[in-house]
Amino acid sequence: MSTTTSGASSATDGRSTRWDQHRAARRRELVEATLRAIREHGAGVGMEDIASSAGTSKTVVYRHFADRQGLYAAVCESVDHRILRTIGRALGASGTDLAAVRRAPRELVAAAIDSYLGLVEKDPEVYRFVVTAPLLDRPGGDPAAPVTDHIAAQLTQLIASALTTAGRDVGAAPVWAAGVVGMVRAAADHWLAQPPGPRRPTRTTLTQHLTDLAWGGLSVAWASPSTQEDS
User: Fold this and answer.
1) Percent helix / strand / coil, the chain, rounded to 5
2) Is the pLDDT of residue 101 over 60?
């Protein structure tokens, strides 16, 4: 009797696992379809456009995400992972590699900034979709906060490593990281709003400007207390 019950339970668990995997795969497909629709129709894309891009109906989309809030959150999560992977590749293992932090700190800050601007340049409508949250009737607070918070957390590790190497207190790391991310985001929004033309700086130039500004404050993290006293 117990063997039969155990076998039935295993079969049920197997079916449940396969169904969970199917739903997860379908959700990923719908997120990719949403990204295609955003690129085609712009950040103000509607649910009809999204369903059409997915080759299905709005009812099916809602079945997997419950509502527009759920779909927006899933798209933000996808973009979040993409940005973090890009920044992670730019920084390599340097966030925890103290030798790398000491060797080229300014370049690491520039790489992190350029990675963020890369999404803005390559996928401007997706970026607008994330920061403006057009699917949400009344966004509460900053809808893009989870994305920028994760970026700030990654930058916090880099700054904390530098402060540790310099023998300084790491308490400033999360504050400085949040400040840098906020600065870059504000500059990116301003940059994206500018019409194409000779007055609009290139991504390389904007990265340089923002790195200069950020490094003016962050460089203290890479200086030992004794160096500061001598200066």
Assistant:
1) 80, 0, 20
2) no
